[in-house]
Amino acid sequence: MAANSQFSMAVHILTMLAKGGDENMKSEYIAGSVNTNPVVIRRVLGQLGQAGIVSSQTGAFGGTRLAKPPSEITLCEIYKAVSCGEVFALHSKAPNKDCPIGANIEAALCYLQKEIDHAVGDKLGEYTLACFIDKVCAVHV
Amino acid sequence: MAANSQFSMAVHILTMLAKGGDENMKSEYIAGSVNTNPVVIRRVLGQLGQAGIVSSQTGAFGGTRLAKPPSEITLCEIYKAVSCGEVFALHSKAPNKDCPIGANIEAALCYLQKEIDHAVGDKLGEYTLACFIDKVCAVHV
DNA sequence: TATATCTGTATCAATATTAGTTACAAATAC
DNA sequence: GTATTTGTAACTAATATTGATACAGATATA
After folding, report:
1. CA(A59)–C1'(D26) in Å?
2. pTM for the whole thing?
3. Which one of A20, A22, A81, B124 has the lowest number of neighbouring Cβ atoms within 10 Å?
């Protein structure tokens, strides 16, 4: 399977929208920068819309724009908006409950999973979309 | 595809080996607790062996045991030993280089990726196998 | 009202990865 | 020499993601 790149796409899309200001931007235009199909963009935008990060408008001259300024959007909320699972997965099949380790390890791993996800969220929360965009612009300085 | 559960399997396997002390443990026995095929266990053990975490022996009465005490094995080194990629993936197709954002965003995302991976590693580094096992045993107290 | 445009979404194909299985060579204890 | 166990190759099945096509619904404008 292809690795899940929705977070990367979401950040790319939002960077484009931030540059577009208050104007509606078409999914086709964004797709031109991300180098993919407009439907793929609209799928990600749907999740970002549900999270209240962007606001879309159908019809002629429709499109999407940010629902709040880039300085008020953290990478953490973007990550959660498109979140596609955990950093590591638990057992694909439940372990053997007749073994004392098998019986208890899932709960311990689940606790650990939450700790890690929390750490990732904290780190991503240190960045706003605005300061990420500064980094993008500074890359070729 | 099934989500990657090799880290969970690795921790499970190492918990079993820790309980087994200095005795060689067979992949078939471990597979009984993890509830999977012995070959799946041996695949994970191969990676843990390359990382110097376990030591295996072929032949009759062979098997695998820890290469060092559980108090000297961190969850971070286990994660790195079986590491199967990053917390989030970069674009599946390269963005459009003719767009200033498309041209620079991959580098910025790559930097961010390393930051996140570092945060995950730091958090996992707070746990040794020994203290994780304490948690497993404490679950049903 | 009619038309053109754009989103939202369903559906399908292509691709990639993981888990699981079988099979067997190589190594080793007895 | 024999039985046992790892290491590894090869294959299947299941599943997730991306990408593509198609079309209904909404909306600005004439």
Report:
1. 5
2. 0.92
3. A22
